[in-house]
Task: inverse folding
């Protein structure tokens, strides 16, 4: 392999083989991941200049980083844009540069190993071929919609042409990632290969001179129709689907993507400034700024636990109910050995069965992997695993005496260095810790239901909790791929402390004669993923009553209808009836009162797939100020949690409420919303 003739690039390395194949490796300086910063893009233009002067037989573009291919554009640069002109210049730079790449005379191939996101995928789409490496870390996506913007560097042009408009719009409107195998099935990749042969495969394909993958005749005809005569029909269907989930006023980007593909050939620069799909509209929208804010908040949560080298191999969970069983299953999915304790094997069996279904979904039906994961989840009715565990998590019912007795027993049997954690949602750690000889060992690790789907975990520091115990608990949460939020021990911590007053105010509205459907529709229209009355039904009316002060507030009583329903055994979803009727676990709402305003998208929002709310198809007549009234106690409670030091600052409070409750992401969080509103 001959030496590179130009060595002054900071981020790119060009290597030429004697046979004429050129390898271009991206290795962004002073960064753990590759991003397409302005400097990286300027150098890429210089690389293309050098290749124009001495064209290779073929070019393979790859990453020199172990962390992945390209993570996308530089979010810091995007966040710093101070005008529409600057935003248009950023889009124009990428659009022209990738068009130039697509037009070169020699074959080009993107060798994709690891994450390939946003602008990284748009670069790959500008190549003639794409080879993906069959590894779990290989993910391809155009997630711009999650930041309130559009894939303006060619994604809206090339992805629909490559894999068809329906599949392309689905990816662009959700921001979801596909793995290597699915990329091959969709036609997004020409081949999917093991890492050990990736360079050989790239060399063969790049130098082979074969045309791009040819579709079967029937599929070619379908693609032609969808990109031509049926283009408007495809776009209208996509708009209708988007409108069932979000409103254009709160989330303009999904609708802009559809419009730009349909009317402007995927070129965002051609959209007139007055058009609601223009870059001017998108980049001046509060939604874009707020979703970028949410991205930064999420990155801040991801950073908690990075300073911990704690790598637990064995987790012991006490309590095989829905919460405890799912905690155990999530830990097993992350490669840990888990012993699950309850009073009998019969009590543990439903949790194992539920875990098996989860493993089957996560492993996409690969029964070998399902068995391996199940082998790590061990029923342990006698609690023998506690003596060997690195982390012990208590997830039994909310009874102080029962928890004290359990922790006294666990402390006597646990290793001295084991983390002792409670999943309590309402009890003070200080009250539980009185049963321990060493109260400094107790920490709170508070999950949210459903555990496999919701990303936030509150890591609770009691008055006596040792700093190292807290650090290890936070590291554990990060190891299981959750977002750790440090909070202080206080009634309800953060999330439940703000949800309680919010749900109570919604139920008070119902007491006053406002239909539950109307209350829920008002909050869904605001941008919440689910109405508060439906949320009470999902949580369980008996649990809402038991929460007592957390729900009712200082000196208040639970609403009379709530108490009446509980007295009649109508506990919400789990009993089939509460404020609503439930059939097969799905809510049934009254016709004419927001029918269609059902739970949809909460899990997507909380997993970072923004936006993801559902709007009523036929919204009821909503009284003015209803949403503001119901939200007001939540805003007050969030501010109080900051003032009382439950969370360190307002940004963390916003992050916790967004990722713990699904609070409308387009607002940037409750305190940010309150500050902007005033």
Result:
């Amino acid at each position: 392999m001959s030496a590179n003739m130009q060595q002054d690039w900071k981020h790119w390395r060009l290597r030429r083989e004697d046979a004429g194949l050129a390898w271009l490796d991206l290795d962004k300086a002073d960064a753990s991941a590759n991003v397409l910063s302005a400097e990286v893009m300027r150098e890429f233009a210089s690389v293309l200049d050098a290749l124009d002067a001495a064209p290779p037989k073929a070019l393979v573009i790859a990453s020199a980083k172990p962390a992945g291919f390209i993570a996308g554009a530089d979010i810091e640069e995007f966040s710093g844009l101070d005008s529409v002109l600057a935003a248009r210049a950023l889009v124009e730079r990428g659009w022209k540069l990738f068009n130039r790449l697509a037009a070169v005379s020699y074959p080009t191939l993107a060798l994709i190993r690891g994450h390939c996101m946003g602008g990284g995928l748009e670069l790959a789409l500008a190549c003639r071929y794409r080879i993906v490496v069959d590894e779990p870390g290989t993910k391809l996506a155009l997630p711009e919609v999650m930041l309130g913007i559009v894939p303006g560097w060619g994604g809206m042009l090339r992805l629909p042409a490559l894999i068809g408009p329906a599949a392309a719009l689905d990816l662009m409107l959700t921001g979801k990632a596909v793995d290597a195998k699915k990329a091959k099935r969709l036609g997004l990749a020409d081949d999917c290969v093991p890492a050990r042969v990736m360079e050989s495969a790239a060399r063969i394909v790049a130098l082979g001179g074969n045309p791009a993958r040819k579709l079967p005749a029937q599929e070619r005809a379908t693609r032609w129709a969808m990109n031509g005569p049926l283009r408007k029909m495809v776009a209208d269907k996509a708009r209708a689907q988007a409108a069932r989930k979000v409103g254009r006023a709160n989330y303009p980007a999904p609708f802009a993507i559809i419009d730009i593909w349909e009317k402007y050939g995927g070129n965002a620069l051609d959209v007139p400034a007055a058009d609601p799909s223009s870059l001017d509209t998108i980049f001046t929208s509060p939604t874009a700024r707020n979703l970028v804010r949410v991205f930064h908040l999420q990155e801040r949560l991801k950073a908690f636990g990075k300073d911990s080298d704690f790598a637990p191999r064995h987790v012991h969970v006490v309590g095989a109910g829905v919460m405890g069983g799912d905690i155990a299953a999530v830990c097993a999915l992350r490669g840990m050995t888990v012993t699950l304790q309850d009073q009998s094997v019969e009590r543990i069996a439903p949790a194992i069965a539920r875990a098996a279904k989860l493993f089957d979904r996560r492993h996409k039906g690969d029964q070998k992997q399902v068995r391996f994961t199940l082998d790590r989840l061990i029923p342990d009715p006698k609690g023998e695993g506690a003596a060997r565990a690195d982390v012990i998590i208590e997830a039994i019912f909310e009874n102080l005496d029962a928890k004290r007795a359990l922790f006294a027993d666990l402390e006597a049997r646990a290793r001295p260095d084991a983390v002792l954690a409670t999943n309590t949602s309402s009890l003070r750690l200080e009250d539980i810790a009185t049963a321990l000889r060493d109260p400094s060992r107790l920490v709170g690790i508070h999950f949210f239901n459903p555990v496999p789907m919701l990303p936030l975990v509150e890591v609770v520091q009691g008055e006596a909790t040792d700093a190292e115990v807290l650090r290890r608990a936070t590291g554990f949460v990060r190891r299981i791929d959750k977002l750790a939020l440090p909070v202080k021990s206080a009634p309800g911590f953060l999330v439940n402390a703000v949800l309680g007053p919010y749900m109570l105010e919604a139920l008070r509205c119902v007491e006053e004669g406002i239909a539950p459907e109307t209350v829920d529709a008002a909050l869904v229209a605001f941008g919440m993923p689910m109405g508060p009355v439906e949320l009470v039904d999902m949580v369980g009316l008996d649990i809402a009553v038991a929460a007592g002060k957390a729900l009712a507030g200082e000196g208040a009583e639970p609403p009379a209808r709530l108490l009446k329903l509980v007295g009649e055994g109508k506990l919400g979803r789990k009993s089939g009836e509460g404020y609503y009727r439930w059939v097969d676990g799905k809510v049934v709402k009254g016709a004419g009162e927001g029918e269609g305003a059902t739970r949809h998208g909460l899990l997507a929002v909380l997993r970072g797939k923004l936006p993801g709310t559902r709007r009523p198809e036929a919204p009821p007549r909503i009284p003015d100020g209803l949403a503001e009234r119901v939200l007001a106690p939540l805003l007050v409670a969030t501010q109080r949690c900051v003032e009382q030091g439950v969370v360190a600052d307002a940004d963390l409070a916003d992050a916790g409420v967004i990722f713990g409750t699904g609070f409308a992401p387009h607002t940037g969080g409750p305190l940010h919303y309150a500050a902007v509103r005033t």
